[in-house]
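Why this split exists: single-chain examples teach little about how molecules sit against one another. For that reason, every record in the complexes split bundles all components of an assembly together and asks for one structure covering all of them. Below is a record exactly as it appears in the raw files.
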Amino acid sequence: MGFLDRSRTVAPADWNRWLIPPAALSVHLAIGQAYAWSVFKSPLEGALGLSGTQSALPFQLGIVMLGLSAAFGGTLVERNGPRWAMFVSAVCFSSGFLISALGAWTSQFWLVVIGYGFVGGIGLGIGYISPVSTLIKWFPDRPGMATGIAIMGFGGGALIASPWSTQMLKSFGKDHTGIAESFAVHGVVYAVFMSLGVLLIRVPAEGWRPPGWEPAVAVVNKMITTANVSARNAIRTPQFWLLWVILCFNVTAGIGILEKASPMIVDFFSGTATPVAVAAAGGFVALLSLANMAGRIVWSSTSDLVGRKNIYRIYLGVGALMYLVIALAGNVSTALFVVCAMVILSFYGGGFATIPAYLKDLFGTYQVGAIHGRLLTAWSTAGVLGPLIVNAIADGQKAAGKSGPDLYTNSLYIMIALLVVGLVANELVKPVAARFHEAAELEEASR
Amino acid sequence: MRRPLIVFAWLWVGLPLVYGLEELVRKVIPLFSS
């Protein structure tokens, strides 16, 4: 594979490890655009005569493909290295936009679904896991912080894409040719932007250690293994499935608020002396995005200090308490409601960003990227579960003639229950049994 | 080591992020002014 080959990406002795986070960010900030797909929904519906359900299809297929390609492509990413993975991600993600541009130009919506959803979705999944194991190897002293920076990028991608895409549609127009031109510009710009990651990414040379850091000194916690577990063995351990439950329920709880954030704050304060206008509710959604992004870097970095198990105790335990406060006293004060929701969303982001370091602690660095890819199926499941619970209950309550906070109370209690189940699962996480460990020579090779 | 490259790389990803954050702050202001 030449330039893309893992052997060509081994860092020279003077390579600085602080070049790796921006390489990872250039991929994650780009693919994080997926969460800004809603910007294209309304123009596509108008230009191609689609329903709301139809216009959501490219995004939904993209998220499904993210989960599938991360789960099935993880081993390939480990074998071929991060540069190959970032290149594949950039090609797929950008081509997805270009195919979608052709689809919009010719008014063939199925091309948009295949382009953005299928081809672009592969770029999402491969890109998401592409820098994870490399970052952990460069920052063995601070793995939570390192993966937190990259995964923060995925949260930040939508912050950039949302106003940028809106502005572009305003300039090019919202008819099918304007949408096609916008898609084409997205494809080209993201290809250039992501190329920084392809060019900069390096794997550390064998035996490299951060100056002054010794693994034997660093490992004082029995929850941090010095052994390695393969991706194939990892899914046979109870620890993998406990983490799967933890991630799934933590994400479900976050999506429970994200999905209905705007109508939720309006409904909560509709019968009070301080109603929230729809325009102001947009500000609330923006604040939640900020909390989601900040939580990824802040909480994940904190996990390096307090330990992974303890930080998930906070995400799940304090998260459940925050939900309880919203359920019992959410409509007492706007500030209280906003703060509680922001804390929950910061835990949602933190949960995503800390999981690679938790995996590294339990399974070692050998195939942590591939294991992470398999664990992301929990995200796909939560992506269906969270909106399903909140929407079904809110619709049911509305049909029963209820209004205001009553529309959401039952969903809030369900989210508390899920978080408590996640908390119990976290308590059950113990070090992986030695029978799942790889032989010593493989462990040496992975270092 | 490689300081100019590090500065360039962080600006490459940092500037778009600053743009996104600035736009976000604009959206948040009405929440507190209503």
